[in-house]
Amino acid sequence: MESTGIYHLNLLSFLRERAYKVSVIHPARLKNFFRFLNPKPSKSDSKDAKTICRFLMACRQENNPPPPIAEMIKPLVREEERISQSIAKTKTEIKTLLSILFPELEGRFPIFAKNTLSILLDLPSSQIIKELPRETFFQSIPTTRGRKVKGIEKIFELAQSSIAGNFPMTEELLRFKIKRLSYFEEERRKIRELIESVAERAFEREIRILTSIPGIGKSSAITFMTEIGSIERFSSKTKLIGFCGLDPVIKQSGKYKGQYKISKKGSSHARRIVWIMADSARRYSSFFREYYERKREKGRTHKEAVTATATKLLKVIYVLLTEDRPFEERSSNHNSI
């Protein structure tokens, strides 16, 4: 059957429960095959069914669906990703509002520390703080002990010399954004706890191996395994790299030879987490740092070098998971992977 977002899942589950062998085909592959067989744009359900049958006869489709546990966790992982994007967007909006209400704060104070956000929720602008007597300001802060006192004093001092104007409606908007940020962060925490409670049992071996690579934490390891499902699904490193859309593509004709680019045909979610893992690994692992630096010395941009490192990371991960062994730090010059 053709993968249709979420709409094929009930039928897929129904067939699997009754021990039918089911292959889920990527829509892009079917689309290209359909164009090859049918130059005319006419389309119908019966024609699509025949095309799928002819595709299965012409192309050997591997029956290697992800394990049910991965499919069960995946919606939560995707939701966590969306919430993380919303958190990043909300933080940017808060910074923008503070550049109007309290411009002196950014760069001199940790804006998104809990204590700072708590103060800004009650006192969302330098104008409000400036109008308060010193004693009243400190009394309005729940905790005034140790290091927190110095930080609070700094906020009060910055407010006295602030150039910000009076914008009451913007102050209310900042309060809304801070409450929204708090809500998003709490939701993400709950979702992460739920994911880990299931994934730690399902992917115990894989998490142990992946976290042996410096720079890769448990959260990234779980997200990666949820996206790929199982390493047994891939018969080679190339298949894993292609699934993540990091396989190289070159366009060449006659004397023209284009630049190598990645296909981006695979899972964008898997590609995203691999790129994040690679960017972290090249900072904390000498093996991947050496590999990244060699790419930079050859004139690659930072993004290109990290993308190349991501491909290298997938090759290493494939070997580690298939051979069931942890990562061992060594020079990338002496590695055969």
Largest sheet: 2 strands, antiparallel
Radius of gyration: 26 Å
Compute the separation of the termini in Å: 35 Å
Strand content: under 5%
Summarize model confidence as the mean pLDDT.
87
Helix content: 55-70%
* Low-pLDDT regions: 144-149
- How large is the count of helical segments? 15
Note the topology.
Layout: H1 9-17, H2 27-37, H3 45-58, H4 68-101, H5 114-122, H6 126-131, H7 134-139, H8 147-160, H9 168-202, H10 204-210, H11 218-228, H12 237-243, E1 248-249, E2 252-253, E3 256-257, E4 261-262, H13 268-284, H14 286-297, H15 302-323
Antiparallel strand pairs: 1-4, 2-3
Helix pairs in contact: 2-3, 4-9, 4-11, 5-9, 10-11, 11-13, 12-15, 13-14, 13-15, 14-15
Characterization of this structure:
The chain is an all-alpha fold. It has three domains: 9-58, no CATH class; 71-193, Helix Hairpins, CATH 1.10.287; 203-334, no CATH class. Helices cover 64% and strands 2% of the residues. It has helices at 9-17, 27-37, 45-58, 68-101, 114-122, 126-131, 134-139, 147-160, 168-202, 204-210, 218-228, 237-243, 268-284, 286-297, 302-323; strands at residues 248-249, 252-253, 256-257, 261-262. The strands form two sheets. A two-stranded antiparallel ribbon has the order 1-4. A two-stranded antiparallel ribbon has the order 2-3. Helix 2 packs across helix 3 (45-58). The protein starts with 8 loop residues before the first helix and ends in a 14-residue tail after the last helix.
